[in-house]
Amino acid sequence: MRSVMSLWRARWQRWLDRRIPAQSEVRLNQRRIFIIPTRQGLGFLLLIALLLIGAINYQNNLAYFLTFWLLSLFLVAILHTYRSLSGLLVRRQVSVPVFAGEEACLPVELVGERRAYQALALGWPPQPLQMADVPANGSTQVELFAHASQRGWLVPGRLRVETRFPLGLFVAWSWLDLDQRVLVYPAPQAGDLPLADAGSQDDDEGVRVIPGGVDDYQGLRSYQPGDNKRRLHWKAFSRGQGLLVKDFAGLAGRDIWLDFAQVGGGVEQRLSRLTHAVLSLYAQSQPFGLRLPGLELAPECSAAHRDACLRALALYGVKA
Amino acid sequence: MSASLIPRISLTWLLVAQALVIIPHLLHVPSWLIPLWLLCAVWRVQIFRQRADFPPAWLKGLLLLGVTAGVLLSHGTLLGLDAGVTLLLCTFVLKLVEMRKARDAQVLITMGLFAVVTSYLFEDSLLSFAYSLLPISALIAALIGMQQSSFNQRPWATWRLAAGLLLQALPLMLLLFVFFPRIGPLWTMPTADKARTGLAESMSPADVAELSRSGELAFRVEFDQAIPPNAQRYWRALTLEDFDGRRWSQAEFTRQARAPLPDWQAQGEPLDYQVLMQPTGQPWLFALDTAAPPDSAGRQAVDFRVQRGRPIEQALLYRMRSWPEAVRQAQLPSLQYRLNLRLPRGFDPRTRAWAAELSQRFGSDQQGLVNEVLKHFNQQPFHYTLRPPLYGQHSVDEFLFDGRRGFCAHYAGAMVVVLRAAGIPARVVAGYQGGEVNEAGNYLLIHQFDAHAWVEYWQPGTGWQSVDPTYQVAPERIEQGIEQALAEEGSFLEGDLLAGAQLRKLAWLNQLRLAWDDLNYSWQRLVLGYQGEQQMQWLASWLGTVDWQQLGLTLVAVIAVLLVLLGVWLVKPWQARPVAQQRYLLAAERLLATQGLVRDSGEGVRRFSQRAQVSLPAQAAAIKAFYREYEQQVFAAESVDEAALKLRYLRLRQALPWWQRWRGKKNAD
């Protein structure tokens, strides 16, 4: 039974992939919109049936009138529900990487050309869908959230876009593959790391770094773009001495290497610890290098370097 | 305990719709419903404003019990249409307070639509139908509001959308209305126990006097030929053959459906006409003598009345054919013969004595005897009045010999008593006489004040003969109508000052009244009367033969075509081309793609433009110019200038090597 279901699901996915291929922006049209009556719509049909029986039994033409009017309204609602989705442009927006365990934000832009769209619902079931309205000749940014449970690429899958507008009797929906994905860094995990010197792998004189240590406080220097904002000396700023940054020398003279091979624990634990180290070293404006099996990032101290390291940690061992 | 699940717009429209639904029902529901409804409405608004809480379960139970008890007290029952409608409205009102989720609001809207339909069972005039469009559109607006976000603050836009949807559904509805076959009732339903004025199967003179004071419409008649003169318009409803000394009633034998059909012979020219009668709650139809229904609208009964299987609870349209010169029952079955000679014992000795004297005087010349009685009415000082004195035990004696004041019921009743006492079978016929001609629509209006009673007596060979003693006393009643007959007395419609017929006194108002009645007549005839026979006739006149199966298929096809047309009109696929800027952007990117430059997914337009400028230094200026124009128009929200963008696009195309141009060429439009 399960295999039949999974077979069916796979077939459905393949069919969807052919019919609605992955694109960064999709315009909803008759190829992509599906429509069926909702529960409320079926209830409405039941009401019409009851009214019809009443009209027949009372031979009351006004009751026939209203019965047929509601039935016609039901039919017209098919077109209107379809219309409240048709022509909508759904565009993928850039999403920001997150750490595992956090909620990833995958924004999309909805563009309504020519007319407004109301009561659109987007999301990845079974999570609750998010509602949005789009003005005519305008666009709306919708921030969709997905839980990032593990590092690597978070691919939330096909996005469901649906609407029941205007009458709620029908639901029109589409499954869009906007090729949405977001990079999930390993969850940072605090812990002492043996920091290796460049070249002196076998030097048993390991240097320990106490995360966030303040012992190596060097003094103040003036702020430069790219400096960590947490290091700003606000007191000095409030005294009108300009933006000053508390400078930490770190372990000057020696480049710090974060080495996967030197960290204890399982793969995921090691990656988590390294992530934490990358963040704290960057926070201390400490240049560092990263060594993963098959990858080496030379010591540097910049946001781009930090991001490259985090990316490498996130994608370690992940198939592209 | 938040009300956020029901959007504000929907709640607004639900409250409005509820008021609109309830108003027409106020005429026939107990008055305690009003405070109950106001209480619930205020409560619900307070809940929405978070000033009050939803009622606890025990209070809900208590309210429901109280309402049920109230209905039981007011109607005496929980069954029947009236009690049912009151219960429906009570739950409709109470549900408002209990409404938490979207589901509850949907139930409320459904109940509202039901309540609108039940209001049609009580009142189906053109005005009340026009009014019902308000609650219907408000309910649909509430349905739409359920889908709208809670930030939406424009209730009128929602209503306009609802009205638009209803309008778009109108053509389909009309098709279904016209072509859906009208079948008979599947089972009997309870009907509204509404007090109706009209003829009853038993009546005293006072009842007829009561009717004569009502300006209500009884029925309308449209003749295929010219309208016959007033004096020939005797509309038979039923015959009254039982007399108990006070009241005349329909005989049990005559009422029975099993009674044998009378024999009669059609003679002369028939009259064809169409009658639209108001509901009477009685089974008989109105027709001129001698009526033979041409279709299944009714059945001729033993006393030549026309009867239907069940009481008429809704306006009824039927065709009728009458043979005024027909000979009715040349032979009278002995049972009927005896029935029409029966008189109660111990009443009216003076009348009996006079009848015996007449009988002796005329012997076998019964026609002479009848004429003598009529002459008596004509020559003695009888007076036609709606304000007769009260007659006592021997009412006929007192009327004939002492008071001599009365109206049709007195004259007809007295004459039948005299004829029966003289050995001539006779009976009272109850119905209407005359009618007002509506010149605007060329039809007759018969009101309750046209109610009349006359006499039928039987002669061997010639059968039943009609005679009207009132004519001998007040010929103007028969020739012109009751208003003229009572002109001197001024008692016409004295109890009913607001009756439409009162407007006759002002010429222009009267014209307006008749024009309005003409409109209502058309409404009743064309819309309400579109049932069974009428539908078949109408369809046959349009389509020749009526084949329901073929008709059904055609109907489905026509509806599908209409839906497709509406869909095309709604979606406007010819407008689906992207807006100009997008079109030129796509064209330009296809052009650049021929150079091997493709914008990555996620790559911004500006970034791509910079990349393209670097890789195609020869065309860098053209690329830059195009993209700058594009960005200005799209992102800087500048006015759309299609021509300027097109110019930049063309410059870009010209800048590219010629052999690659043709590939991008077809993409621009």
UniProtKB/TrEMBL annotation, chain A:
Keywords for the protein's UniProt record, in alphabetical order: Membrane, Transmembrane, Transmembrane helix
TM region positions: 33-56, 62-82
Domain of life: Bacteria
Name of the protein: Uncharacterized conserved protein, DUF58 family, contains vWF domain
Organism of derivation: Atopomonas hussainii
Automatic annotation (TrEMBL), chain B:
Any single Pfam family the record assigns to this protein: Transglut_core
Transmembrane residue ranges: 79-97, 104-122, 128-146, 158-180, 551-571
Keyword Lyase recorded: no
Positions of the Transglutaminase-like domain: 400-471
Source taxon at top rank: Bacteria
Transmembrane helix listed as a keyword: yes
Protein name listed in UniProt: Transglutaminase-like superfamily protein
Organism of this sequence: Atopomonas hussainii
